[in-house]
Amino acid sequence: MKRNTWQREAVREALDRTEGFISAQALHSDLHRSGSSIGLATVYRALGDLASTGEADSLQSPEGEAIYRACSTTGHHHHLICRNCGLTVEIAADEVESWAQRIAAEHGFTEAAHVVDVFGLCEACAKA
Ligand SMILES: [Zn+2]
Ligand SMILES: [Zn+2]
Ligand SMILES: [Zn+2]
Fold first, then answer.
1. Where are the domains of the chain?
2. What DSSP state is assigned to residue 35?
3. pTM to 2 decimals?
4. Which residues of the sequence carry a binding annotation for Zn(2+) (predicted)?
5. 52 vs 8: CA distance, rounded Å
6. What is the tens place of the pLDDT at every residue in 89-120?
7. How many whole angstroms from 88 Cα to the centroid of ligand 1?
8. Nearest ligand to the CA atom of 99
9. Is 32 annotated as a binding residue?
């Protein structure tokens, strides 16, 4: 039985309402604007929790900040992210999977995992 379940739920709902990736701080201000008194440390913890159970994606922005998103795909996958508007496309990357397996094996690594996210400009942002 976990404490802070309602807080985790509040964070999850706020994340569901958010388009694209968001930082813990930005999510925290959103929650405050909507009248929640939840603390920043709790938001960080809840996001970490959701990320570890696979309910949220977490990755590093190009600025090195941890950002989160409610994930619509379960299981291992990759993202294509617009660095301007945050549009995110969930992608499978079979070539990456076989490359990562091969390169790890060549160096004698087992239990290899990887995080591959591609940042760029989406079509709409590139046109604007
Ligand atoms: Zn995802
Ligand atoms: Zn964009
Ligand atoms: Zn992969």
1. 1-71, 75-128
2. T
3. 0.66
4. 82, 85, 122, 125
5. 13
6. 888 889 999 999 999 999 999 988 888 889 99
7. 8
8. 3
9. no
